[in-house]
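Can you please make up a protein's amino acid sequence together with its fold in token form to help me picture the idea?
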Amino acid sequence: MSYAPKRVSAGLVILVGPPAVGKSTFVQHLVQTGKISQEAVASTDAIREELARSSVVSARDTSHAELVADERDRQLLKTLAAGCTALAESTNVTRRARARLVAIARQQCITVTVLRFEQSREVLFQQNAERERRDVSDAVVGDLASIMDQEADRGQLYADGAAWVHDVPGRGQGISAAEAAQLFAFNRFIRR
């Protein structure tokens, strides 16, 4: 099956998908190929690791989720204020998580594009077993995939404030993260 290339409008790009679906690998390929800059990416995993290195939080401690989210929001706002597209890399499968991000976009008067990552449980569990990270169990992956099924279908994403929703193919569709990243081009600068 062939996939048509997608142009992502400038603004806030929200990645939505359970752990182990391939979001981080997809973003790594976007950065490596120069489609987006590393500075445009606000990754909750990277923020949590940075805070752990500075001894603010433990790398595995989820009780500091608000601190991590606040830092992610600060990074997004800084990028958007500079007139550049910003990418929010975290699971974002709940309406509540996305509402916070959509509020940032509305505050800045910019559009929201959602890149939606959905794979079968079989693919998710296989990819989770292959990950270097061992801090997310299959039970958590499955639970977050179920939440995505309930709260992040295309219609819900549009209802929550997305101007565009693009499904990102993956292993279940016979596409690697690198190949999926090649399908997307990003408008980098916001015209106001």
Observations:
- The chain has a mean pLDDT of 93.
- The domain at 6-42+85-186 is CATH 3.40.50.300 (Rossmann fold).
- The first helix runs from residue 23 to 32.
